[in-house]
Amino acid sequence: MAKRPSTVFVCQECGSQSPKWLGRCGDCGAWNSFVEERAQPESSGAAAAGPHRYALAGAAGARLYADIELEQHPRLSTGIDEFDRVLGGGVVPGSLVLLGGEPGIGKSTLLLQAAANMARTIGPVLYSSGEESEHQIKSRGERLSVGTAPLYLLAETCLERILEEIARVKPALVIVDSVQTIFSLKFQSAPGSIGQVREAATQLLFMAKGQNIPTFLVGHVTKDGSLAGPKALEHVVDTVLYFEGERHHSHRVVRAVKNRFGAISELGVFEMTSTGLRPVPNPSKMFLAERPSNAPGSAVLCSVEGSRPILVEVQALVSSSTYGTARRTANGIDQQRLSLLLAVLEKRAGLNLIGDDVFVNIAGGMTVDEPASDLGVLAAIASSVRNRVIPQTTAMFGEVGLAGEVRGITQANLRVREAAQMGFRRCIMPEANIDPADRGTAGDCDLVGVRTIGEALDVALG
Ligand code: TYD
Ligand code: MG
To answer: CA-CA distance, 170 to 211, in Å (whole number)?
Structure first.
């Protein structure tokens, strides 16, 4: 009797497998996440891996560390400096990069722009899309002035066909627009299921490493902000980039959350215009552009993202709550951190906030998650409560502890320099970070060291 093909049920959240369907995943606790998938043939060891094996150049058994020569990988520029920056200086040959983000944020736009630039500089580029037809991509390309670059478009969802076209076109760069839309003939499950997504990413990885073709994958992000499909995808690829920003704002931020070839938390800032994404070389200027003058509840803080200091405005509004329960809303900063800062303000600075609604917002849709932003957030809240304005040319940064102390932070020099460059005349910062030797470098900017939040508020609100 012929053996029935074995099926397994796979949790679409965490990849856990079960021979039976389960309503709730025992591993990650997700409900109704199991989908039937055909089991992959068991393979063990390099021999069984067969076609899955890919040889890295010169890999002929184990070698002594000291015998291995250091290779300098030339980086390929995407022609967009902000994009090169998040990639750690450009695209590494043979690397697999995942670009995640919500629908409509600009993933296809950015990659099409990079594809056109790279087609001009390094050779043919294959842009394979499972979401749009060639005509749709072309009409977008016209807005981005792609021109006559050797850019090949392929509207295809079958993985095997895409690999065939790669073998035929022999591109210098491959872009696969949305890994969730492609499927392999080897599996019966629907595109986007964990098995399909994993297979697509693995096959493209072999292609990228084996033939030394850098490859970009687009990945969709679910409502809760994680990549749709398996987390496993993040382990397979070399670099994971996330597109952030709000659709109502024109600016977009691309952040590296994993990079085998560069620093993480590096970020690139773009502006969406009618002719595509434009790099923003001076983000501080953009984030402060619409700052109201002489308004209470507004403070400027300096956050370091990767290697780059960025000044952003934090706005706070405190108003008495009409209904019994007070609301605390945080946009761009962590809600827990806001609760903590409010408690510190109540206890250590004597502000009475019980029964008040508190809204905090980082202007421009930016997100800051550094403790160094504490002091700015706290000052904005206090400024709103006391209805006193923080002078327009004052920037603040410092971590706030539970005892109301202002703690030292990293890279204070970098922040001071950015503030001075942007025309700020005074920085309120942790006393611990004030180095008498630095005073000269800050130019016209006056450095005021504070030890407690009480001192900081006295200085800021005069
Ligand atoms: P898109 O790159 O299609 O997003 P994703 O691939 O992440 O889903 O971006 C689409 C949005 O960008 C859409 O709302 C229109 C806007 N857009 C511009 O504002 N200017 C442009 O030049 C282009 C091409 C798109
Ligand atoms: Mg798209």
So the answer is: 9
